[in-house]
Amino acid sequence: MLKDYIDIYYFSGTGNTLVITQEVAKVLCEHGKTVSLLPIETSDPTKINIEHSIGFAFPVAIFATYPFVWEFFEKLPQGRGTVAFMLDTLAGFSGGIVSPLKKLLCKKHYIPLGAKEFIMPSNYGKIAPNEKNEAKKERALKKAKQYAESLLAGKTNWRYIPILPALIHQLSKLKIAWRKMGGQITIDQTRCTKCGLCAKLCPVKNITIEEGAFPKKGDRCYSCMRCVAFCPANAILFRGKQNRYRAVKCEAFLEQ
């Protein structure tokens, strides 16, 4: 069962995971729990409080999740019976994260309480009309509330499939796949105003900018789409297109 204090470690690119996490936290708080939301990119996994219940929230990417998110999980301390749950957001299919994460947590002596996946709008393909995106988000928020209530009641499950997810997970860790993904994000200097917001928002500090110069993109881009979604000049492109879906305002990440 969940303890009175719950820490949810989350990563969110364009805000999908954040809004779902906030809805889960809201319901837990309404039932007397004290919930802290902690960004994965600025948290030390070795210093989590294993006396609390722990939640993990993140987007699916390449059928699993981003390397720096998975590295966070790998560096977690031994749980000694710490209750853990997870949620992820995705456009369609994962396959390579739910079972591998459960296996890792069990190995570290956590108790997996529940896992839930939420379909949310995507920034990778063609951007759907705003009303369709909002409808999809509302359906996911409703399921988030139900998931939180199920966690409180101890009526969740965390499935484990031993073979196929492990294979998908290993394929998702290939560096060539991430280089290909990151290489599809480009900066249009004819539009760029050199405001530096992209550098401030990048979760892995892959974008740098010097005073008066255009931003430079390094070789560690994981295509989380945060810079694409929030560039005020529409100067950062994915596959040469101005994909512009976002679930929150950029201040949600600047204030982390």
How would you describe the overall organization of this protein?
It is a single chain. This protein has two domains: 5-169, Flavodoxin domain (Rossmann fold); 180-254, Alpha-Beta Plaits (2-Layer Sandwich). Helices cover 34% and strands 19% of the residues. It has nine helices and nine strands. The chain has helices at 16-30, 67-74, 98-107, 130-153, 164-172, 175-182, 197-201, 226-230, 251-254, and strands at residues 5-10, 34-39, 53-59, 82-90, 110-119, 185-187, 207-208, 216-217, 236-238. Strand 1 (5-10), helix 1 (16-30) and strand 2 (34-39) form a beta-alpha-beta unit.
Sum this structure up briefly:
By secondary structure, this protein is α/β, with parallel strands linked by helices.
List its salient traits.
256 residues; Rossmann fold; Alpha-Beta Plaits; two-stranded antiparallel ribbon; 9 helices; 9 strands
